[in-house]
Every structure is written in structure tokens, then in C-alpha cells.
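Researcher: Checking consistency across runs. Here is HemX protein again:
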Amino acid sequence: NLNTEAAMTADKDKSISDSPPQGDDVQEPSSDSVQDVEPVVVTDDAVDGGDKADSQTAAPPRPHTESGRGVGTIALILAVVACIATVYMWYRFDVQARHQQEISAANLAGDLKAVTESARALEKQQDVLSAAQQKLDASQDELGKLIQEKLESSVSTLREQQEALAGSVSKIYESMDRSIDSWALEEVEQLLRMANQSVSLAGDIKGGIIGLELADKRLTELGNPELLEVRRLIAGELGQLKAVNQADLPGIAFRLAGIIATVDKLPLVNEPDRPVAAGSSQPAPDAEENMWMEAGQD
């Protein structure tokens, strides 16, 4: 810019120096000056001298004109160089800007591609997770159904086991009751045998009475109505033992043996009646009592 201004200033100075004066700058000679002017005779020597003087006076401005033209040329060259430099710098900056834009666009495209790929990967993962969630839900449903079925089956099996256990316990209780009744009857039978042996073998009336009383007490504890007949027979024998003398011992032993046989044939509690074989005879209680009473009278 400075070179351009210097060239413009030099051209202006040159145009001013070369242009002739115009307008008010041109002064016309006055009448007085015209009147005072004397005629001059021009000789050849004067002409030659004037030409020499003119040539001497006109020669000096030439270096000024050539120097102005050189400055203008330099200024023009500098201006052109400045323009070229400006255009080059602008082109370079533009190229760099475009290159930077291309790089930014490439980076942006790469980022966009990466984001797109990430989005697709996320969608795939979402699909996989959705499928896994569906499988998990289905597995939970199947597991719930299986657990429910197993639970129902276990409850049903437990109920059956409880029912079977209850039946077994009932059978055990029945067996225990039967065993208790059987043991009690065996104990009564043993007491009657002891009473019979005391009377028949040892002649111990008192021992026989004690054995009969213990047997009657044990039958009372059982509380079986079917044993009332046996208790009645035992009561009759107790009365006869308390009233009889020593000579009646064989008859009393015989009657005690009959009572023992009657105890063996009595049914247990909660036990069905034993079938009686055809042709078998069982003496009636009244007949046995009459027989024992007759033996006591003898």
C-alpha cells in the first residue's frame, strides 16, 4: 500500500510539472512594459548563444522525468507484487480453510458413521436383551407352573401319607387295645389258675380267695360287658369258698378249672366273634353253674 501511494504521488508531480500554465496563472504584458521594451536586434551569434543557453537550461529536467518514471514503475511493480501476494495469501488461506473444512467434514462424517454404528449396535443389543427378557419370562412362567405342579403333587402325596399314617396309627391303637385286652385276659387266666392250684394242690382256701378277688378286680378294670358272666361265676365261687370246709376242695378245684376254660373262650375287645366249628358243644353258663353248685353240694 505504501508503494502504491508513492507511485501515485510521483505521477501527480510529473503531470503538474509537464502541464502548461492555464487561467489566471498566465500574465499578459501591460502597455507600459510594451512601451518600455526596446527593439532587440538578434544576431547570428546571439541566436547561436541562445540556442546553446536553451539547450543548457532545458537539459537539466530530463533526469527528473526519468527518475519519476522509475519510481512509478517500481511503485507499479510493488503494487502488482502486493496484489499477487494478497491473491496468493487469500488463495492459500482459502485452500487451508477448504482443507480444514474437508478435514472437519471427514471427521464429522467419521463421527456420524461411528454414532450410526453405535446406534445399530445398541439396537442389536436391545433386540438381544428383548429376546433374552422374553426367554426369561417364559422360563419364569414354566418354572412357576412346574413349582405349582410339584407343590400340588407334594401336597397330594403328603395328604395320602397322612391318611396312611392315620390308618396305621388307628391300626396300632386297635392292636394295642387288643393286646391290652389279651394281656388282661391272660392275667385273669393266670390268677384263676393260681387260685385253682392253691385250692386243689395246696388246700389253701385263703390263697384261692385272694386269686379270685384279684381276677375279678382285673375284669372290672377292663369294663367289657361281655365279661359280666365270668365275673358272676367268680363271685359264686368266692361265696362257696368262703362257706365251704376243707372236704370240698376237689369240687372247688373242678369248678375253677371250668371258669378258666370259659375265660379262654371269651372274645377280645374290638375283635369279631370267633367262629364255632360245626358239631362243637359249649356248655351254657347256667348249666356250668348248676354243675358247680351240685359239685359243691356233694
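Researcher: Does this match what you'd expect to see?
Model: One thing to look at in this run: The chain has eight helices and no strands.
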